[in-house]
Amino acid sequence: MLMLELLAYAANPEAVIAAVQSGADSIYIKFGGFRPAAFSKISFEKALRYCRVRGCRVYMEFDSLVSNREIPSFAALIQEGAQQGVSAVIVQDWGTVPIVSAVLPEMDIFAGERLGLHNIAGFKKAKELGIKRIFLPQQMNSGEIEILSKNIDMDFSVMVFGESCVARAGLCYLPAFAENLSCNRGDCNRYCRREFSFGHRMEDHPMRMNDISLLRHIPKFMEMGIKSLHIGKSVIVPEQTALLCSVMRRNIDNASVPSPPEISDIEFAFSGRKFQDEYFTAERREEELMGEYTEADKALENLLSEVRQEYSKSERRRVAVNIYAVLEKNKKFRVAAEDHDGNRVVFLGPKSMGAKTRAINERYLETELYKTGETPYYADKVMAYAEEGLTLPENTVQEARTQIISKLSRRRAKAPEVKIGKMPGEPESKAEILETKTIVEVREREQLTRELAELKPDYIYLPLKYAHETELLRPFKEHGAIAVAVVPPIVHDFELKEIVEAIKRTRDSGVDEAIVSNFGHIELCTLLNMNVRGDWGLNLFNSYALKLASEQGLISATASTELRLDQISRLHKPLDVEIIIYGRMPTMISELWIARAPNGKIDPAMRANMSDNWGSVYPVDGEYGGRNLVSGDKKVYIADRADEFKRMGIWGARIRFTGEGPRECVETVKACMGLSGYRPNGLSRGLYLRGVR
Predict the structure, then answer these.
(1) Each residue's pLDDT tens digit, 103-121
(2) Which residue in 38, 47, 502, 597 has the most C-beta neighbors within 10 A?
(3) pTM of this prediction?
C-alpha cells in the first residue's frame, strides 16, 4: 500500500481513463440496483482490464442497503467483481459484512461513510469484524482524525473534494419519506437543498452547503499518516476528475499545497460552486459553510477541452519494470521483463551474427530498451550483456521491446485467481412471539405523566439526559414498565466523557437498559453494565444485519424505517425486533444548527418548524452536541394493524412522541392500545406499505 493513496470516483468509463491517466492510484465504481451506474457489463470488464494493466486498483462500492430478496444477487455480484479483479468491496450495510467475509474470504472490506462510524469504539468494532478501511465522516475535524490515525491501526480515507451534506451520512431519510427515494439505497435527490422556510421568506435554503475542498491540507494528512484521500461522488465529469487527480498527484508526490494557478483552474472548472473546509478546521463559520450556487462560466468548456486533450493524447507511464537483455555468440537474442508484481515475460529473437561494420554494445541495448514511451511502463532498471563483435538483424531490438511490452500487458490484464467461499447460512428466528410489547418513547419531561404510566406500557424509552431522574420514572416502574435510556445517535470521542458520566448516573439510578443507533456505542454501554437495544439509526435492513446485531450483544433491534411491512414479516429474527407504529419518524440528523426563529436567530436548543413549498412542515429539534433532529412532516400510524404484529414476529410496537403535549400522548397511547377510538391528526402510513424505490 502506498503511503498516501489517491482514490478517485469513476462515474463512467471515460472517467476511468481520466483518473488513471491523471495519476489516481485507485478508483471506486458505484454499484446501485445490482449494476455499476453508467457501465454495461462489458464496459465494466474493460475498465477492470484497463486498470489492471496500469497498476490501478479498483474498488466496487455497493451503495445501498440490501433487502433479504436481494442478498443472492449481491453475493453473485461481488463474486463476479472479485473474479474480474476488484481489490476491495465498499459496503454501506452491516448485513453485507459477514456475507462478503464468507463469500470472498480474501477480499478487503471497506466501511462506507453511511455505516456511521465516528469514534474509537466504533472503529475497533469494525476492525474486529474484519473491516480494513473506514471512510471517515466529513464532519470530523483535523484533531479528531489525527488522534484516530495514531491510536487505531487501520486505514482511514478522507474525502478531500466533493459535495458537502448537512445530514450525517446514513441518518438522512428525508427523500425517502417525501418522494420514496432512499439515500440509504443510493437514491439521494438533494431534497435538502431545496427551499425551506422557518416562517419568513421562502427563498431560503437553510440546508444548502458549500462543497468541501481540503486540497490545501494534503501535507497535513501526510503528517497524520492517513492512508487514503478520495474524491467524492459528486465529481462525475471526466475532465473535472482528471484535473483534480493531476493536481492532487503533483501535491502528494511533492508533499505540497496547490499553487495559485492550480487553485484558479479548479475553481474555474467548478465555477458556480463555492468551497469550504470548516468542518476540518473546526471553525464552522456559518457564512463559509452555507452557500448558494451560481451559473457555471460559459468559457469553462475551453479549460475542460485542454484537460481532455492532456489525459487522452498520451499514455501515463506508471508501471515500473526491470528489463534484462543478453546477446551471446551463436545463441538467440534474449530479452526478459519483470514488473514489481512478479509478472515475467521473455522474448527469444534470432541468433546473433558477426558484425561486419558496427557491432551492438551494451550501451546501445540499454538505451533502446529504456524507450518505453507511449506505454503504461517505465524502465526502473535495464541491464544488458553483449559479447563483442556481434550484431542482429535490423530492428530486432525494437521488436523485442515491443513484444515484451505487449506480452507483459496481456499477462497483467489476466484476472487473478480468487478464493471463493460459501454463502453463510440464513439466520434462525427466535421462538414464536406470544405477545407484542407496548413501548412508549418520549422526548420531553412533561410527557411523562402519571396518566400515561397508568396505561401500563411494557417499556418506556426516554432521553439519556434525564433517564437518571427517579421521580420521573417512579409511576412507570410502579406499574411494571421497564425504563430504557436513549443514547444520542452521534457521540464523538471528545463528547465521550460526558456521555459516560450520564450512563453511569442512569445505571446507578436503577435503569439498566439503553438503546443505541450506532455500533460504536454497544460496547460503551455493555462495559457500564447496561443491556443494549438497537435503534432506528442502525439501518438494520436484512436478516444478516439482525444476526450481526445479535452477535454484537444487542437484546433487541429496531427494523429499518424504510422497510415495508411485508419485508419485515419475512425477516428471520434471531433477536427481538420492534417497529415504530406511531410518531413522526426521524428524517435527518444534522451536525449544524439549522433551526431558526422567524427573525433568523439560531438557537441549537430551540424547537422550530421548517416548511417547504408544498405545505409540508417538518419539526426541527435540538439534539445532543448542538446538532439538530429533523422529524417527518406527518405522523406515521399503523397501530390499527396490531392483529398482524404477532404473526409478523414483531416483539415490540413503539409509540414515538416528539412534540406532542401530555394529553395528546395519553390519548394516542389509548388509541394504539385499542382503548379508544381517538385518532391523531396528520396521519400517514409512512413507508410501511409503499416502501422505497
Answers:
(1) 999 999 999 999 999 999 9
(2) 47
(3) 0.94
